[in-house]
Specification:
32 strands; Ribosomal_Su5_D2-typ_SF; disordered N terminus; 34 helices; kinase; Rossmann fold; Ribsml_uS5_D2-typ_fold_subgr; nine-stranded mixed β-sheet; GHMP_kinase_C_sf; kinase activity; single chain
């Protein structure tokens, strides 16, 4: 019911209501489902005013009624697409700012006045944020109808590409918090802004014609296989060819430009074609995932061959629903563009889609909206709004949400399997399981080389390998997505041949962090969580290829050639493709390996498979740096329990485990130090992340329950530092995704190298003036006055070789706080960092990034010395203080975040709150690794009380943000200590 000022009464009788329906500017899918809800409202006798940027025909072709009013206004921009398959994250944020943030005041004023002018009884939004605030300003109730919200979508964009746009996410959340409740559609994402939720069935457009009628109109007999190509715009530069389709097939093309020429087996549909009828008349659909395509594929039981879009966070939830109902087949983008469609289409038509849910969501939603407009209250008393949302939303792509009404993830969405799922429970319970795991793997595999060293995660990994044989032999498995990963892995291994297994842990950055690229001493601890890789090499004639890989190879007519096939467990945790394959000849340019630049471009073609650069990139590095040639095919399974995006070097663990497996299988002897340096090249030159070497070095050379001490100039291992028995380290994950490839890490690194160049040039200038003949000073008389120091500083190779007192005495005041890239390049030409590039138009912080490693090196040195000092509270207080100082130095560089700051604050409160504990047990904390999110390292006494306090902090953080931090505790050996296992299957597995 409309809320009026005193004395104005209701806007209309209860039999005739006015709805203002706002439609987001992202794609036709929203408009088409709004059509279905609006149609039912109009059939019930109500007026619907649609506020949209979509073409009129989308609405008028389905609704011919004077009760439909279309107002052409665009109040948000959705996701800006670089092409049909790629979202430009930064451009999306900037466009939203331009569309909805800058003119916000005028939008609210205009919309409030318009809502009053039409006497709206209810505002409905799918899912325009500002519409909810406008409704509140006008005193009108509002409801959202959607399967995702823009706060969730943009949160990931903010963390990945535009952290300075963070306020956009907060503002959107505040807008949505004015909404009374959410009508939630299947295939939904986490939507933390809404506390009250009503679930409805699929909203699907009705059919106008039967399959037979459509085919008769097109002149296509019922026995002809028909695929509908539905991308909402074709990928740029794409030319469809006759041989793309299996013989006898035809393809209907939606949304094709008038200039696009099609081969005879492709049929261009009119721009205004009613696609639901054509979808239902087809045998399968090929396209990109969106709500409209998925809902119609499910409703009409049509197999859907899909290609992943880049960076649109709605997609994994819809994809998982699609696959849950046995309706989805994923196509690799490379095969889409090169026309290797046959194996995917043939697989699709063999599926038996099993969706039996309701498809009348439009009618159900319309009834709820009508009842709400008439005064019914569906919402509970709640405390929503920005004060409860900021932390929850900025966490980005997470599955744990704030407490409240049922915000559970749907039953068809569960975490993809990785070792995190396999290794649950306490360390004690895991130890108790070791004996049964030991019996299991010894029954399944004969270990020909190596030692498990009592590692329960390795035993679990071998058990999962053993079970793959059962997956390969049987189709009976209810976990469809796990079956997909398992079947892919089972299908590439020859179970009668040897398999090599390697293990590499992640690391907890105790001290040193981003100072590694400036040559600092670092102290790193290998964590318990690790990556396992299983690898098998086979002659190309004996290699078992996936159908699409075989089809691609056969199309070239060259016979069997070496192929690399990789399966990655846990792919859904970061929305990446679970498999990757390539011909090893792709790494060759004539008789030489391709350049690293070309390799980087190769893996960047499809962001959903870019992860393979960490694995496959190790092969190219070995080819280029060591001259190795690979004549056999290679199959790899990568399974990691090192959580991604948490600043504990998940990427280094993958690189090290992968290269170790390749080296072991090919008999390569590589020293641990050299292996770490080679893995760093993978990340720097092929992945394109400008990391230092401490991550890879720790993953290779670390040992359990000890700190690896290393001077990064470039990689000199000083040895292992015992962790005193009374001291313990924990890692607490903030939930905010961290990426060493992110813009903030890179800009801080560039700032540090700028600072080094300025210091060197300053030292040269001072030295020149000091030694100038005009001064009348004999250089020999100046040695005691610092000439040698100035000479050393003029040729400074690493910032950390400059002592803090020299920095403060001479250079601190000469470094600019910040500097434009163009200004720096004009004056200094180059910053001399081979793995980063200065953007001329960007302003870089210089003073703080340059200062940090100079002081951090001093802090780490002091920390190392304190670890061996006498046991006392003073020792722990001093160690903790060094961690705190490091943390705030990170913040000065711009690498802090709300979440990590909150965790450090909680540790401080626990440390200084004497009422809670007479004896403090936690002493310090700091952000780790590359910063900008990730994990906080905590130091404390090795005691039960400390563990209890860590759990209390974990719970307090969850209460404040809705996210339950992952706790890293314990340690494990590095890849060098583990070596490798060579195993052979004993006999046929029974599962």
């Amino acid at each position: 019911m409309r809320i009026e000022e005193s004395g104005h009464g209701e806007s209309a009788s209860r039999k005739h209501l006015v709805f203002a329906y706002y439609v987001t500017g992202h794609g036709f899918g929203h408009a088409t489902r709004v059509v279905e809800v609006a149609r039912h409202l109009i059939l019930a006798g109500h007026d619907v005013h649609v506020v949209t940027g979509a073409p009129d025909f989308v609405f008028t072709s389905e609704i011919q009624s004077p009760r439909l009013f279309i107002r052409k206004v665009l109040l948000d921009c959705g996701a800006v697409q670089a092409d049909a398959l790629t979202v430009d994250r930064l451009a999306s944020l900037e466009k939203y700012s331009e569309t909805a943030v800058t003119p916000r005041s005028s939008i609210l004023e205009t919309e409030t006045e318009w809502l009053n002018s039409i006497k709206a009884d209810l505002v409905v939004s799918d899912v325009v944020p500002v519409a909810c605030s406008a409704a509140a300003d006008a005193g009108i109730r509002s409801v959202c109808v959607t399967n995702f919200s823009w706060d969730f979508i943009y949160a990931e964009y903010v963390m990945a590409a535009g952290i300075h746009h963070r306020s956009i996410v907060w503002q959107i959340a505040e807008d949505y918090s004015h909404c009374e409740f959410l009508i939630r559609l299947p295939g939904y994402c986490p939507m933390p802004a809404f506390r009250d939720v009503i679930d409805v069935p699929l909203v699907v457009r009705r059919l106008h014609k039967s399959r037979k009628e459509v085919r008769n109109e097109l002149g296509i007999s019922n026995d002809v296989k028909l695929v509908i190509l539905n991308f909402g715009g074709q990928p740029a530069g794409w030319n469809l060819k006759e041989e793309y389709l299996p013989p006898g097939w035809l393809c209907l093309v939606c949304g094709a430009s008038n200039s696009l020429e099609l081969p005879p087996n492709f049929i261009k549909l009119p721009k205004d074609a009613y696609t639901p009828d054509h979808i239902a008349a087809s045998d399968c659909m090929l396209g990109k995932i969106g709500y409209g395509t998925v809902s119609e594929a499910l409703a009409y039981k049509l197999p859907f061959v899909f290609v992943r879009r880049d960076y649109f966070n709605e997609e994994p939830f819809l994809r998982n629903m699609l696959e849950h109902y046995q309706s989805g087949v994923e196509m690799i983008r490379r095969d889409l563009l090169t026309g290797h469609w046959k194996p995917y289409l043939e697989r699709a038509v063999s599926l038996k889609p099993c969706y039996e849910g309701g498809i009348n969501g439009g009618e159900v939603a319309a009834h709820i909206l009508q009842q709400t407009a008439m005064g019914k209250n569906y919402a509970s008393d709640k405390f929503s709004g920005a004060r409860r949302l900021r932390d929850a939303i900025i966490l980005g792509y997470q599955l744990q949400r704030i407490a409240g009404r049922d915000l559970a993830i749907p039953e068809w969405y569960a975490n993809a399997e990785n070792e995190l799922a396999l290794s649950t429970g306490s360390p004690t319970s895991r130890m108790e399981e070791n004996s049964s795991l030991m019996r299991s793997y010894t029954e399944d595999f004969e270990i020909l080389h190596g030692d498990l060293q009592g590692l329960s995660d390795t035993m679990s990994f071998l058990k999962s390998l053993a079970e793959l044989g059962g997956v390969h032999d049987s189709e009976k498995n209810t976990e469809k997505r796990q079956l997909r990963e398992h079947k892919a892995a089972a299908g590439v291994f020859n179970w009668e041949e040897e398999i090599f297994v390697t293990r590499a842990p992640g690391r907890l950055d105790v001290m040193g962090g981003i100072a590694d690229y400036s040559g600092s001493l670092v102290l790193q601890m290998p964590i318990r969580e690790a990556c396992h890789v299983a690898l098998q090499r086979n002659h190309p004639c004996k290699h078992r290829l996936w159908k699409h890989a075989l089809a691609r190879q056969n199309s070239k007519g060259l016979g069997p050639t070496p192929v690399l096939q990789i399966v990655s467990y846990g792919s859904e945790l970061s929305n990446r493709g679970p498999t990757f394959d390539m011909e090893l000849s792709d790494f060759m340019d004539g008789d030489k390996p391709i350049s690293y630049a070309k390799a980087k471009e190769y893996f960047a073609q499809d962001p959903s498979q870019k992860w393979a650069a960490y694995v496959a990139g190790t092969i190219l590095i070995l080819m280029t740096e060591l001259g190795i040639r690979f004549e056999d095919s290679i199959s790899m399974l990568v399974s990691s329990s090192v959580p991604e995006g948490k600043g504990v070097s998940s990427s280094a663990a993958v690189e090290v485990a992968s290269m170790s497996a390749i080296a072991a299988a090919h008999g390569l002897i590589i020293s641990p130090r050299d292996l770490a340096l080679l893995c760093q090249k993978v990340e720097n030159h092929i992945v394109g992340a400008p990391c230092g070497v401490m991550d890879q070095m720790t993953s290779v050379c670390g040992e359990a329950n000890q700190l690896l001490a290393m001077v990064c100039q470039p990689a000199e291992v000083l040895g292992l530092v015992e962790i005193p028995s009374h001291i313990r380290f924990w890692g607490l994950d903030s939930g905010i995704k961290h990426s060493v490839g992110g813009a903030d890490y890179g800009s801080v690194r560039i700032g540090a190298f700028m600072g080094r160049k300025i210091i060197k040039c300053t030292a040269s200038d001072v030295l020149y003036r000091t030694l100038s003949i005009d001064n009348g000073i004999n250089p020999d008389e100046m040695e005691d006055d610092g000439v040698q120091l100035l000479e050393s500083e003029a040729s400074l190779d690493y910032l950390c070789n400059l002592s803090p007192h020299r920095y403060e005495a001479i250079y601190a005041k000469m470094l600019p706080e910040c500097m434009l890239g163009d200004s720096f390049l004009e004056k200094y030409a180059d910053h001399c960092d081979p793995v980063t590039v200065i953007d001329r138009k960007r302003m870089y912080s210089v003073q703080a990034p340059a200062r940090h490693p100079i002081y951090e090196n001093f802090r780490v040195t002091a920390f190392k010395a304190l670890l061996s000092s006498a046991t006392s509270d003073d020792q722990l207080i001093a160690l903790g203080e060094l961690l705190y100082q490091c943390h705030y130095s990170y913040s000065a560089c711009g690498l802090g975040t709300d979440g990590t700051d909150r965790l450090v604050q909680l540790v401080q409160e626990m440390q200084h709150n004497k009422s809670k504990s007479e004896d403090g047990t936690l002493y310090g904390a700091k952000i780790t690794g590359g910063g900008s999110g990730g994990t906080v390292c905590v130091i404390g006494r090795n005691s039960l009380r400390s563990s209890q306090q860590i759990l209390e902090i974990q719970q307090r953080y969850k209460n404040a943000t809705g996210y339950l931090p992952f706790i890293f505790e314990g340690s494990s050996p590095g890849a060098g200590k583990f070596g490798y296992l060579r195993i052979r299957r004993r006999g046929k597995l029974v599962c």
